[in-house]
Amino acid sequence: MSNENGKIKKMMIILSKATIENVYAAFVLANGARMEGIEAELFCTFFGLEAIHTKKLEHLHVATVGNPAMHIPTMVGGLPGMEAFATHMMKKEMDKIDMPDVKEFLEILVASGVKIWACKLAMDMFHFKKEDLYEGVEAVITVGDFYHRAEGEGVHLLFI
Question: Whole-prediction pTM value?
């Protein structure tokens, strides 16, 4: 029996949605893992690919419709301009605490050793090419490849 009982050695984070709140949650968790000396990998799939797509990563929004944390009725969240307003307000609050923008945060993650992967199925489905992605993305891999990377003791998978 190992004397490192329950120690987290690697975080495997799956990012499936590219709303600002989901992207920053994944990035903060990956960065926090690295700051604690824990390996971290980020697998971007489906709409999570927008967080690493060079033409989309600077244009992420806050989800105002169907987001119970917004504390506004769905009908109000769907009004024209509401999503843009909520996004503006969120970015303003993030600026106050010196939160890096998405591209700068990606640079920080890669520099700290976070491995970033793109899902082959989602890439094919959305007709994206590797050249469309942020340069720090390691590769386009299959779900099976991702699971093989998650093998071993002390590895945790987290779906966002």
Answer: 0.89
Place of tokens 């590769």: 139
Residue 49, C-beta contacts closer than 8 angstroms, at least 6 positions apart: 18, 118, 119, 122, 123, 126, 128, 133
pLDDT given at position 91 = 84
Q: For residue 117, give the H/E element and its range.
A: strand 115-119
Domain ranges of the chain: 10-58+101-159
What is the spatial distance between Cα 44 and Cα 13, in angstroms, rounded to a whole number?
A: 8
Contact 43, 15 (CB under 8 A): yes
Residue 120 pLDDT? 98
Residue 73: pLDDT over 90 = no
Domain 10-58+101-159 has CATH 3.40.50.720: no
Q: Rounded to an integer, what is the distance from CA 33 to the centroid of its chain? A: 14
